[in-house]
Amino acid sequence: MAMMPPLAELGWSSWFASQIGDDEGDLIPLRVTEVHRTRMAALGAEGPVDIVAPHQNAADFAVGDWVLVNAAMTVQRLLDRTSVLDRLTAARDGTGAATQLIAANVDTLFITTSCNADFNVARLERYLALAAGAGCVPVVILTKADGTDDPEDYRQQALALQRGLAVVTLDARSPDVAVDLAPWCRPGQTVALVGSSGVGKSTLTQTLTGEVAETGEIREADGRGRHTTRFRALRPLLSGGWIIDTPGMRALQPSAPEGIDIVFDEITELVSQCKFRDCEHLSEPGCAVQAAIAAGQLDADRLTRWRKLKREDRASSAARAQAHQRRFGGGGTGKKKRR
Fold this sequence. Notes:
It is a single chain. By secondary structure, the chain is an alpha/beta fold. The protein folds into three domains: about 5-80, SH3 type barrels, CATH 2.30.30.140; about 100-245, Rossmann fold (3-Layer(aba) Sandwich); about 265-330, Ribonucleotide Reductase Protein R1, domain 1 (Orthogonal Bundle). It has helices spanning about 5-10, 15, 120-135, 150-160, 175-180, 200-210, 255-265, 265-270, 290-295, 300-330; strands at about 30-35, 40-45, 45-50, 65-70, 75-80, 85-90, 95-105, 110-115, 135-145, 165-170, 190-195, 235, 240-245. The strands form three sheets. The chain has a six-stranded mixed beta sheet, sandwiched between helices. A five-stranded antiparallel beta sheet has the order 3-2-1-4-5, with no helix packed on it. The model is unreliable at about 215-230 and about 330-339 (pLDDT under 50).
């Protein structure tokens, strides 16, 4: 079988190639592997290089991005992304919400949690909404199954969170991990790894890459540990794919409302069947959502979590709009266009 071109091994595809203009033939395509405040590292057909961000500001770039650089290794253009993982955070100037880039051009999001006190349905739903809004395939990975008498209970809880969701139970230290996760780690494919500290992300990354990773101590009380991944980086998998490990996130608010609708699609469908368009799904007559709860077809706690995410999304949308207006003047929502 013919060898893949070097750029294809990095995840390059016709999607990116089609974006290069006729006057850009002298520019070099590179994939960003690390992003720091004023500089970035990247990989290309000739190997790893350090590159310079425009105006020495790398805030608009994410690990996994494809860029075009000139001979001086200065970025000339950022290519459109196939997917982008980001979350909402407080703006540095205190004027509202801001978007923090996590990773770009990710095919699959490995959402990692453990079969202990870290397992949290509400948090998993947030990660699933993050993946759905970004355009990534979500896979829930359950670690530390050997520490519980009933790992299948955790698996069933995870499976119930989204239709067609893949859930894998594994030992992050086992050599079988590569086999278990092979469908999503093929050559040229990129996965990102998210989850709380102490659930085994660094151990899983070490197993998949063959690299020696620093692991933190685990607290006996709740099974959590210290952050061992201090910054995001694109690393090669033994299988030929790529992985982006991320530091544990204490708070996660997805930035794409469509992601919430996808994860809670059964509620989205019920809402469209309510008698009144402005139904608040409390006690209104003809409410399809409350009828489903009464019939045992919808969990009331699931509705409560959906309400909370929707409420947060409305508040953050308003904050982004206000921040945008203060910064630029005039109207507008300040929300970025999704691809």
